[in-house]
Amino acid sequence: MSVNLIQSIKEESHPFQKHEGVDALVSKVKNETFVLLGESSHGTSEFYKIRAELSKKLITEKGFMYIAVEGDWPACHQINNYIKGYDDTFSNTREVLASFHRWPTWMWANEEMIELIDWLKDYNSNKPNDKKVGFYCIDVYSLWESIDEIIAYLEKIQSPQIEIAKKAFSCFEPFNRRPEKYGLSASFYGEDCLNEVTKLLTEIILNKLTISDSEDSLNLEVNTMITANAENYYRTMVVNDNESWNIRDRHMVEVLNKIHEFYGAHAKGIVWEHNTHVGDARATDMAKEGVVNVGQLLREEKGAETIFIIGFGTHRGTVIAADEWGVAPEQMLIPPAQTGSWEDAMHKAGPHDKFIHFTKHNRHLFQKPIGHRAIGVVYNPAYEQFGNYVPSAMSNRYDVFIYINVTNALHPLMVEEVFL
User: Fold this and answer.
1) Extended beta strands in 198-284, E state
2) What's the pLDDT band for 186 if we cut at 50, 70, 90?
3) Does residue 412 belong to any structural domain of this protein?
4) φ, ψ for residue 177 (rounded to 5)?
5) Which of 334, 349, 310 is nearest to 53 (CA)?
6) Beta-strand pair 307-321/400-407
7) Which of 109, 186, 319, 358 would staple 97 via disulfide (CB 3.0–4.6 Å)?
8) Burial of 98 from C-beta contacts in 10 A (0-12 / 13-18 / 19+)
């Protein structure tokens, strides 16, 4: 590792304490339309708490109007209605967070989220409807749940489109809500539902003006987009991992654009996702594989000057993760960062919490690719050196990087999980 890199980190970093650090970072957000808040794992308490504090400040001081996270739209629709006071189904935040029943539930059904959701509900309580802050999910996985939502709503308003929706749903019924079963059938046997979901999407878009409630219109349209994009995602996933990733991240940007359109041309949004989604893929080895992500797509589409990306990382600690897909999560030890990695360099520059703001004056100091740790929902600490470090030009990938020297695991809520 270069001695110059460690010295540059010492000279360009600033101490990060909870309140002073949050204030300092929010002051650096100027006229950006989107602030993207990353995380280097899906199971770290400090990342959630810091993102929550940043989000509250961006809402109260900078006028941001919604938070969009990496999760299932139908579950977040329950939260959105709850914090806006549109639905009294749930008596408290714990109950509404139980809407996240698809594995990995701990990403959003956790103790750390309760305080933020309570705060959002209280903040919205004395605001008119057009000034209430929203909470949305932008991921693609909720194929069957989204079809359920579409049918329930069309039945509620007695829409003539209900028969088209039921036909699309019946096409998926033989697969017993198992996406891998649908993917295999669609990819290898040509038994897909593409025509049905395309017709449904077209019908919903053409007739959305007949829906009087604009929030209901947004919900219906996004659920229909999920149906179409998830069908494509699961069909592609079996034969091409890279392209299925691209379908997923393009979908997330498409949903962000729909939310943004709903709030108006001058709206500003906060995005919570893993570093691998928000940190510009062009600054990593993902680019060589033809893989794109949300951070890259937004910078290309909106202009880099309108996007503010904050990455997160840690040297060691504990994390909530699972050792294979679909099994119960557990608290795991995060070993000290690999020698020569970005997190190792941050630690050697001083074993304390800090952040670096990458600017035109210092960006050149941090452009040499270096391994940057990424922990997913599936994790094995013993083997992380074989696949958990992404070569990254850090100052091109992010605008700010927050380093927490020692981190702790999330505190999951006990909810009934569906292992799909």
Assistant:
1) 269-272
2) confident
3) no
4) 60, 30
5) 310
6) parallel
7) 109
8) middle
pLDDT 10s digits, 252-279: 999 999 999 999 989 999 999 999 999 9
Task: Name the domain count of the chain.
Answer: 2
Task: Round to whole Å and give the CA distance between 100 and 111.
Answer: 13
- The first and second tokens of residue 55, run together, are 């989000």
Are 34 and 111 within one domain? yes
Residue with tokens 């935040």: 93
> pLDDT for 289-348, tens place per residue?
999 999 999 999 999 999 999 999 999 999 999 999 889 999 999 999 999 999 999 999
306 secondary structure, DSSP code: G
Query: Using CA of residue 18, residue 20, residue 23, residue 27, what is the dihedral sign?
Result: negative
Range of the domain at 23: 3-137+268-407
Whether 207 and 302 share a structural domain: no
* Together in a domain, 387 and 400: yes
pLDDT band of residue 415 (cuts 50, 70, 90) is low
Phi first, then psi: what are they for 303, rounded to 5°? 100, 130
